[in-house]
Amino acid sequence: MKYVDEYRDAALVHTLADAVARAATRPWTIMEICGGQTHAIVKFGLDDLLPPAITLVHGPGCPVCVTSADLIDAAVELALRPGVILCSFGDMLRVPGNGIDLLTAKARGGDVRIVYSPLDAVGLARENPARPVVFFAVGFETTAPANAMAVLRAERERLDNFSILTSHVLVPPAMRAILGSPDNRVQGFLAAGHVCTIMGTAEYGPIARDHRAPIIITGFEPVDILEGILLCVRQLEAGRAEVANAYSRAVRTDGNIHARQLVERVFEISDRDWRGLGVIPRSGLAVRPEYAAFDAARRFPRVAAPAAAPTECISGEIMRGIRKPHQCPAFGTRCTPEHPLGAPMVSSEGACAAYHRYRARTAA
Amino acid sequence: MCLAVPGKIVEISEGDPLLRSAKVSFAGVIKLVSLTCTPDAKLGDFVLVHVGVAISTIDPQEAEETFRYLKAMGELDGLDAAPAGVSPP
Predict the structure, then answer these.
(1) Is residue B79 one of the residues assigned to a domain?
(2) What is the pTM of this model?
(3) What domain range is B53 assigned to?
(4) Bridge partners of A272?
(5) Is the dihedral of CA B21, B22, B23, B27 positive or negative?
(6) A255 phi and psi, to 5 degrees?
(7) CB contact, 8 Å: B6 with chain A?
(8) Where are the domains of chain A?
(9) Is A55 in contact with A75 (CB distance < 8 Å)?
(10) Is residue B47 assigned to a domain?
(11) Residue A302 has what DSSP assignment?
């Protein structure tokens, strides 16, 4: 597949790993933000190719993992409302909330549908005019344009039965929260390449400067990731903290203005409660009042909110790079993909799921 | 979730910008994709597709330049490696 296969070239991967080994003279801890990158690193064993000086820790860039338990409870409540069709990306179905998960809600008669795109949910609203169709809109900046487009198409088609339950999060405030935490270990970042296709690179300069941390915009294939690590290590060794773009085939400095215009029409910046990290100010997107008719949170007031359940899940420490998945006492025993205690064990982008799938033997 | 896959535009349906779409081939598998966010995308371009929406057009020149640079690094490595093999540091 063009623009995929050539970035998995084994010889090039080894060349880059050797270059990292030559560049690293001291220990460095680098965080990849995006769960897609985490999975590529663990699946291809890229961290095993690196010298012992380099530690990769896995960031919070997994929307399923950071969606609050309370919002999952809200989605469950909607799914169990008579008549409602609750649409979601498949990853969300088995994520535990404070009460039951969406898959259990489905088993109890809730009409929960898995969709590939929010635009498919708009199609369901068109085909079922008598029933409320709610799309569970989770995601980072990458997904916000598609969710905004769904609202705008529903508005255009006067589909007044369509709405979205929003759990949108933004990357830069989370990076600042991680770097500003007293127990922070992260010295450099691989920024999430697909977020940057939308947002561009401008937001990262001030973060790199304020926290003295190099930030490398990085893609998702093995060659991309190792190139990002190499550029990061070279900056760390040289005492530099700048933004560099190692994903220039897809990321323009100013991002995608057309996509951002859609997002700005429908959403506004809001505070957001991140699962495992807590409330981060101005770190999310909420539906603007002008589009309140398409906002499920406004249309369907909550009936009940289950009390927050105590958990031994340490996902917050994992997503801040303090601990690794296999260092959790519940990993692989009380917490498995079949019976997850926390979201990172469920999501196809969660760090715990990656370790469990590709590294179960070494981690056990 | 931010997974985005590169595919080649094989057919475009023009019209209202909010509905502009294309058939995109992912190694032969054809899917309908929104081009609302990539209004400049043309037939034959490769676009990065995320949840049914093209979010970026792949710049072939940038891709090639990166590759030239990386390959050159590999060749330099080869040169580095030869003397190092004879007399280890």
Answers:
(1) yes
(2) 0.93
(3) 5-83
(4) A280
(5) negative
(6) 65, -150
(7) yes
(8) 5-63+171-245, 65-169+283-299, 316-363
(9) no
(10) yes
(11) -
> What CATH number does domain A65-169+283-299 carry, 3.90.105.10, 3.40.50.2000, 3.40.50.11740, 3.40.50.720?
3.40.50.11740
pLDDT score recorded for residue B1: 66
Residue type at position B45: D
For residue A317, is pLDDT > 70? yes
Question: With an 8 Å Cβ cutoff, is A170 touching chain B?
Answer: no
Q: Using CB atoms and an 8 Å cut-off, which of residues 325-364 of chain A contact chain B? A: 347, 349
Query: With an 8 Å Cβ cutoff, is A229 touching chain B?
Result: no
Q: Do domains A5-63+171-245 and A65-169+283-299 have the same CATH topology?
A: yes
Residue B43 domain-assigned?
A: yes
Mean pLDDT, chain B, whole residue set: 85
Owner of token pair 């190139």: A227
- pLDDT average, residue stretch A118-124: 98
pLDDT on residue B88: 33
Q: Which CATH class is domain A5-63+171-245?
A: alpha beta
d(CA A214, CA A239): 9
Pairing of strands B29-34, B21-26: antiparallel
Only one residue has tokens 């529903």, namely: A154
Contacts of B60 in chain A (CB under 8 A): 249
The domain that holds B36 is classified in CATH as 2.30.30.140
- Which residue in B has a C-alpha nearest to residue A35's C-alpha? B1
Task: Report the number of distinct structural domains present in chain B.
Answer: 1
Bridge partner residues of A112 (DSSP): A86
Q: Is the pLDDT of residue A309 over 80?
A: no
Q: Are A35 and B18 an interchain contact pair (Cβ–Cβ within 8 Å)?
A: no
The nearest CA of chain B is from the CA of A335 a distance in Å of 22
Within 8 A of B28 by CB-CB distance, chain A residues are none
The answer, for A264 touching chain B at a CB cutoff of 8 Å, is no
Collapse the DSSP code of B34 into the 3-class scheme (helix H, G, I; strand E, B; otherwise coil) and give the result.
Answer: strand
B60 touches chain A (CB under 8 A): yes
